[in-house]
Amino acid sequence: MTVLLIALGAAVGAPLRYLTDRAVQSRHRSAFPWGTLLVNVVGSLLLGALAGWPASAAVSALLGTGFCGALTTYSTFSYETLRLTRGGHRLLALANVLGSVAAGLAAATAGYALAGALTG
Amino acid sequence: MSEPFEPRTDPDVDLGVPADRRELTARPATILATISAGGVLGALARAGLQHAVPHAPTGFPWATFTVNTSGCLLIGVLMAVLGHLGGGHPLARPFLGVGVLGGFTTFSTYAVDVQQAIVAGVPGTALAYLAATLLGALVAVGLGDAVTAGLLRRAAR
């Protein structure tokens, strides 16, 4: 059951990252990877909320391990940082690293605190 | 055949690359189903490792650290190979890059693991995990890309 729920969450999360990335890229021309930053921050917010909320094992597998895990990505984040550096965009690469980590951590903290406040 | 690859920044989809711009409109169902299938495989592999090597909130999340650093090494290798092949099979990047490696690696678990370690009162572990994953991932992707591209160039000569 857990395996099926993880698979279902991932089956939705992975294409959603791709579609979000496309939608974000079609709206700007910057070399900065806004699409990946967006999915990583939204996923961290949701997973933080799941950690702060008494979520059942089933919800955790579906939304946490499956959906958030597939929606967010470390491989694309690191490859984009590498490409920005190689392309001479060193400042953008640094901003991507510091911005992603800071925003992801802030989102996880906010989600956790929000879930805690709502559930008392 | 060692044509220089298109200067893509984003391995998921890069609208600066003509083939990426066309792929979704040409066959949307195939592309999205391929990404889904890859994402499921990657996520299950990650979940399996996290299940096999669990960590306490105060411990170092070795499973997620291993998943993220090895996934970054593999995307470096994959993108170098696809670059060498001039893009490779049209479904190779969506399946392996967006799907499998995107589903395998995770940023949300990384962020929440760091946050939970802080909540658990072990800021030292949180900081060590934060920095080790970040440095490990960046070194891994650079090595995967450079070593693979170097070997392929040498083999092509």
UniProtKB/TrEMBL annotation, chain A:
- What membrane topology does this protein have? Multi-pass membrane protein
Q: Where in the cell is it found?
A: Cell membrane
Its annotated function is as follows: Fluoride-specific ion channel. Important for reducing fluoride concentration in the cell, thus reducing its toxicity.
Q: Where are the transmembrane segments?
A: 37-70, 91-115
A single MF term (Gene Ontology): metal ion binding
Query: Which GO terms of type biological process are on file?
Result: cellular detoxification of fluoride
Tell me which family the UniProt entry assigns to this protein.
Belongs to the fluoride channel Fluc/FEX (TC 1.A.43) family.
The residues listed in the UniProt record as binding Na(+), with positions renumbered to this chain, are 69, 72
Description of activity control: Na(+) is not transported, but it plays an essential structural role and its presence is essential for fluoride channel function.
Quote the catalytic activity from the record.
fluoride(in) = fluoride(out)
Q: Where does the record place a coiled coil? A: none
What name does UniProt use for this protein?
Fluoride-specific ion channel FluC
Which terms in the GO cellular component ontology are assigned? plasma membrane
Q: What is the lineage of its organism?
A: Bacteria, Bacillati, Actinomycetota, Actinomycetes, Micromonosporales
* UniProt keyword list: Cell membrane, Ion channel, Ion transport, Membrane, Metal-binding, Sodium, Transmembrane, Transmembrane helix, Transport
From TrEMBL, chain B:
Keyword Hydrolase among UniProt keywords? no
Indicate where this protein resides in the cell: Cell membrane
One of its GO biological process terms is: cellular detoxification of fluoride
- Provide the transmembrane region boundaries: 29-48, 60-82, 94-112, 127-152
Where do the annotations place Na(+) binding? 102, 105
Return the similarity comment: Belongs to the fluoride channel Fluc/FEX (TC 1.A.43) family.
Q: State the name under which the record lists this protein.
A: Fluoride-specific ion channel FluC
The organism named in the record is: Micromonospora violae
